[in-house]
Each structure stands twice: as structure tokens, then as C-alpha cells.
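Tutorial handout. Part one gives the primary structure; part two gives the three-dimensional structure as C-alpha cells.
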Amino acid sequence: MPKTQSRSETNVVCIGASAGGLEAIETFFKNCPNDFGASYVVIQHLSSSYKSMMDDLINRYTSMPIKMIKSGMHVESDTVYLIEAGTTIALSNNVFVVEQKNDGSLTLPIDIFLQSLQQNELNKVIAIVLSGTGSDGSRGALSVNAMGGFVIAQEPSEAGFDGMPNSVMSTGVVDHVLSAKDMPNMIARYLTMGVKPVAKAPKVAQGEDLSAPAQLKRILDKLNDEYGINFNLYKEATVERRVERRMQVKHIPDFHAYANFIESDPVEPMALRSELLIPVTNFFRDEAAFSHLKSMVIDKLVESSSGSDELRIWVAGCSTGEEAYSIAMLFDESIHSHNKNCSFKVFATDVNPDVINTASQGIYPDAILTEVPQNYIDEYFSKDGNQLNVKSKIRDKVVFAVHNLLTDAPFTKMDLVSCRNTLIYFKSEAQLEAMQRLQHAVKEGRYLFLGKSESLVTNIENFKLLDRKNKLFSCIRRSTNLFNNLNFSVSRHGSVPVSSSTVKPMQVNKAQYDAERLIKREFTPLSILVNNSFEVIHVYGEDTGLLQIKPGALNNHIGNLLPEKLSPVALALIYRLNKEDGKVSSDIVQVNENNQEPRFVKLIGWAIKQDDLPAYYAISLLEKEQLLTSEGGEPVDVNQVNTDRINQLEIELHATRESLQSTIEELETTNEELQSTNEELMASNEELQSSNEELQSVNEELNTVNAEYHEKMSELNQINADLDVMSSSTGFASVFVDADVCVTRFTPDAQSIFRIREQDHGRPLDEIVHNLIYPELFEDIARVIATGKTKEREIKAETGSAYIAKLMSYEVPSQNQYGAVISFIETKGFGSFQAVMNSVPQHIAVLDKHGEIMLVNRAWQRFANLNATGNEAELLGVGINYLDVCKGADDDMVKKGVESVLSGQALNFSHKYPCHSPTEKRWFVMTVEPILHEEYKAVVTHTNVTKWEQ
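Part two.
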């Protein structure tokens, strides 16, 4: 019997599958031993109205108990648990919690169960993701990995549908990709594998310390050399646990062996780095905290924004980007709701380049539908199969970068800094340094947002607490002692102390930098660097008012930053530079801006080309005084030289503008029509996407049902074959008929009585010739089907053979159909016994041990037919229980007498009783005598004693 496991012993194996997963589940249990000491939870996608046959199917391959999960049920070892249709399950304190599924929204039962496992104290957790479409199981796999569990995905080429295996593999936390039959062996190795630390401080000849702490440091130093991340600054217990998990995955028993392995294997360092940098995040993680962030911080920042300064946000430890995009969506929503014309930029950083790459793509599984409100899904995401892509209007607002919070310089002048659930992995001294850097980044009067498990730890007096529960702070004065308080810095080659002298070169470099800026500003004309998309990416020299930022969203296109007279000139220079090398220059252009004094500007451009890389263009804007300095000579009389040319150009420009205005109006009309059409197409597309999601869900359920029906069909085919063999080997002639007395099945021996062939299935039996002397055959069949009572008769055939004809009814419950089976047993020697009974004038019946009438002679049958009315004769025929007939006779004395003989308590029983007819008075004596026979237990005789009585 399975036993309830204690918390420290509980091992849970969750098997998640959807469409096409039935075969994999059967293969798994066919190869899975019954004594692993684990609890197996099988979760499928099932509609609320579907009755699963999974318990019957799995039961064929395992001897472990199979249970449907109910609320309050405890986890037991070596037991298989199945989810009921229309429900989701979770585990709380090692007890199952069942909830009804909401059919109106996306439900991911595998993710829900796997994520709930973090609330329990479990020994080992294994998540298995099998065939299926969609992404269910991906978010749950991240949670299992975060708690140190083991994740296995089915080989996609083996899976009927590879959507779910591929989705969970894309998370980067899958430990093994295996076929279903190989999974039990891997689970056995994982459950039985233990880490065996080397005995403390033994030394080898070369002086190497083989103790577990020394070898662990060796492992972490290897990562520091490879990636510049000093994991010695992370909490020891967390690091050691994650290293041990990698050792279990690789089946390495001690730290020394693993240190050797990681130094020799080129792939393992990256795997261990990913293991230590736990990517645990969600959209709007802790919904209440984000709600307070929006109302107390984001709305205030947007309301107070003048529109000229860009709002800057830093999300440190952003992982795969969900939190950064969440904050960006809240800012965008607030800007639109307040009808403000301001911009913002989110800087999202993490030390792990892998997660930064994932975050920058902005592609997430459709599992996030359970995390993101529907209005945000509609506004900020686009659907692409089983994925959701962050739209460019939000993705362009977020800049992702690799950044080490402990070693790299912090960002500055931030309106909001968010760092949630990152510092909890650091040791206390590392937490102190990281917090100083975060505080230094916050502008005075702006905000800091921390996780529930984090606190300020330093410079508390510089911040005002806004919300204790949700860890929101406001900076009342900036921290200025950042570089004075740092105790250490981390390089790619380990920890290097930082002394006060380390700061002096920084001061010298700063002076040089300031001097260079001063020289460039004083002696360099205003110049701009432009890329091949006409975007200004750098400005040199002092801006004398020629550059301008226009109202609206920030646009760094060169045509948007230069005055109206200079924009077309600059664009013309770039077009020329794109075709020819060297230096090109424009004529002198007169610029009149805001009714100020005219300014005369000449543009000079150079192309910067490097091999096959895109070209860049440098444009210098020289005014009249700078032209004298750079070119020499007397001041240029601009009006005299250029007036004619300018007038001609203005005439041409005026004509061009009129033509352009007409074209613009036509384009605007066309654009409005296209926009209207586009909105209609978008609405239709949304409806089609919704319908597609519903069809996909239905398709998964149909695949599951179809797989189970295929399995049942195979089982029925096997049963049908068994029945055919059994019917052929019995030696009895049997014919099965339906309610209309049409043939449905027959045994080969029936062909000796009926002229029946295989093609006669479905043919009425009365159309088939037989050799029986049995005129009541079809009346008896109809009566048996109508009443459901068994009928037996002794009959003969025209060939001289004697048979016992036994007619029984049957019912097909699922189809509410009725029929009958007619069996003919050749009596042979038994026929002489029946002949003897028929020759006796007494009424004789033979009973079995239950009192059922098995045989009667002709005298019994004749008397019953002559003296009974209606169907009373049938109540005394074969197949009737004689004890029921005797009920109530002389206060049940007769019934008890017959029972005493049948049970062996009495040697015989007799009873005299009157049986008068309308024409005469009669008396009979009933005698019951036992007989020694396997089937027959007593003989009942009724003798007419009227003459003796008179």
C-alpha cells in the first residue's frame, strides 16, 4: 500500500501533455518501475464535458494505484494522479487543491501546477513536458528550475506535436531532451544521485586543497575568468545548491570531480552560469505593487513632465525583460490617459547576455496571457502563432544592455530606478555596494522601487518611505559618497581592492576630458554626424541656435533638426556624397528664423566610408565669420552673389510646393480610405485570431479524445478476436439476434442447424432455413426479448438429433439496444434421461441449488398449460425460480421445506394440498427429494391423490 510521504521525503514527477501525448504517456509508464518512491501527476488539456479514459489506459501498463485528484487529497508515494476534466490543480502544504477551470479564458493547467510547487517543502521535483501545441509548461519549467528541480522535454522529432517541447526548450532551463521510453531511467538516476563532498581538507602531493569549499571556489573562479562575474559575492547556500544541481544533472559525485569537469568541458561553464543567474520573472509580478507604482509614481512623473525633458527609467536585473516592458506599458498608458506630450526611455540591464538577447527580441509564449491584462495584450502585443510579440512602439522605448551591478558604473539622473528580487542573491557587503549604486542613479525628488525581500540598507536618511509594503521610496537628497564608500571592485580576474589612490587617475582623466570639450567648443564649427538613415547620431562644437527641437515626439532626422532653409540643402549634400567621394559644399544660404537678424550659412560635407559597412556623413555649418577664418579673403556680399539665383529657386520652389500640396491632399484622402479599410481588416483579423485560438483548443481536445478512442478501438479489436476464437472453440451452436430478430453474430457450429453464411449478418432469422422441429422458436425469441427472462426447451431436429434450446436476452447499455442469443446444446445421453421423465405420469421438475427449474417432464408442462390462465404457465416453466412460486403457501412452510432439502438440512420434504378445479375437487401431494449431481440438486414431484382422499 502507498504511504503518505513526509515533507522531507516527497518527490513529485509532473507529466504535462496535450495533443498527441497519449502514446508518450503510455510509453513512459510501460518503462517506469513501480518503486521509485515518487508521486506521478499527469496533467492533460481536457474540456469540461469530456470523460477521460486515461485511468483505464494507464492501468494496463503499471501496477501503481491510479487516482483522480480531489481537493484535500494528500500526496502518496508510488501513486499516479490524474486531473479531472474541466479543472486545474495546485499543491499547497503537500495537499492537492482543485479548482474549476474558467472556460471563458485561457487556462494553462501545467503551468499552474508547476508554479504552485514552490509553496511546498519537497525533496525533489521533476517536470516532464511531452507532445502538445502551444506553450503550456514553459513558465512552470522556469519555476521548477528556480527551486532546483529537474526539467525534461520530449524529443521534438518523436512528439506528435512539437510546440510544447520546443517552447520549454527555448527557455534554456531544460536539463535533458529524451524519448519517452528513456525518461524513467533518467529519473531513477536523478532521484538516487547524491552529492558526496570530499572529506575536509585532505591534501595532495602538490598541496591542492580537496575540501568542498576550496573546490567550490575553484569552480567559481573559473566562471569569473570566463565571464567576469564573481559568484563568490553571491550567497553561499544558493550558489552551492545550484552547483550541486548541475552535478546531479551530469551525474558527478563530488566537487573536485566537477571542478575538473568544468575546466575541461567548453560548454559546462556557460550552463553553470545560466544555472546560477536564475531567470525568474513575470509580467506585472506582484500586481498590487505595480498598481501602487502607477498611481503613486508613474502618474505623478507624467503629470509633472514639461515635455522637453525625456523621462528616464532604469530597471536593474531585468532578466528576460518582462518587468521592463511592464513599466514601459504603464508609462505609455499614463501618457495617453493624461494627454501629455512627453517621451520616456527605459534602460533595462542584466549581467547575463543570454537573457538580454531574449529580452531585446520581445517575443514571449502565449502563456503570458495569464499574466498580462487583456487590454494590454490588445494594445501592446501582436499574435504570431503560439507567440506574442511586443509591438515596436513599446520595444523602441526600452534599451537593453549587459551591465554588472557590482562592477560597472551606475546610470545617473534617473527618474525611476527599479531593482526587484535581485539583491537577495548577494552577500551583505555586495548588497551594500549595489544599493549605493542604485541610490546614486536616482535624481533628487525621484523614485526607487525595490522588491518585497529587499531594503535600503544604507543612506536611509536620503530617502522617504512612500509605501512600506510595496517598497516605494522617494529621494529627498542625492547620495554623493558613492565612490568614497566602495570597498571593493570586481574584475574579470577576481576581487581587486580599491584604495583612495585609485580615484586620482579618474580626476586627471576628467580634467583632460573637460579641456578637450572646451577646445572643441571654442574652435570647432557646429558639425553633425549623420548615418545612412539621415539620423543625427552625434553633434560637435557649440550650437549657436541653428539646431532646433520641434514639438512632438523626439525625432532625430536631420530634416527635423535643421531650420527650414537648411534642411533641403543638407539632404542634397548627403545625396551627392552618396554618389561621389571627397568634399562637397553648398552655396551660402540666408536663414531668417523667428524675425531675428539674417544669418548666412554655408554647409560643407564629407563621406565616411569603411569597406562594406554603411556610410556615415559629416556636415559642418559655417557662418559668415567662420567662413572668413576658414577660407580667408574679404567678407562675402551674399545678396549680390546669390540674389538672382535665390529668386529663381524660390519661383521653382513655389511651383513645386503647389504641386506637392495637391499631391499631399490626394494622398491624405487615399490614406484616410486605407486607414478605414485597415481598421476593418484589423477588426476582422482579431476575430479570426480569437476563432483560431478557440479552434486550436478544440483541436487539442479532439486529438486527445481521438488518441483515447484509437486505444479503445485496439482494445475492442483484441476482445473481438478473443470472442471469435472462444465461440469457435466452445462446440455450441449459438446465434445472436437483435431486437428485430436479425442476425448479428453466430458460431461456426450454428451452420449445422441453420443454413447461414457470413453475408447473412443483418438478415432476419426467419428467412434462413433450419432443420429444427421447433415451431415456437420465433414466439419464444420475441417473448425472451420482451420480458428479459431465460427460456429452455428440449427440441429435436429433422436429423434425429436432440437439443436443449436455451434462449437468453442481452442489452447494450450505452446504446439502449436489446437482443437475444439462442444456444443449442446436443443432449445425446441426457436425452434418455428426459425420455424416462416424460414416461412418468407424475408431474416432475428438476431444481438447481438456487431453486431454479432446470428440467420439467411432459406431465408437468401439460398440467401447467391446462390449468393456468394468461402467462401463469410460464411461471412454472424452465428458468423460473420455484422458491418464488412457493412463497406464501401455508405461511411459507412449503418454501422453507424446499430450501431445507436444497441446503442439505433435510433428506426429503412432502406436503399435501388441495388443488380444486371448476369441475372437480382435487388433492395433490408434493414430494421433494435430493439428488447427487453437479448441476441438479433436487427433484420435485406432484402426485394426484384425489381417489385416495375420497
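Part three, for discussion. Residues 287-498 form a domain with the Rossmann fold fold (CATH 3.40.50.150). Confidence is low (pLDDT under 50) at residues 195-205, 482-510, 631-641.
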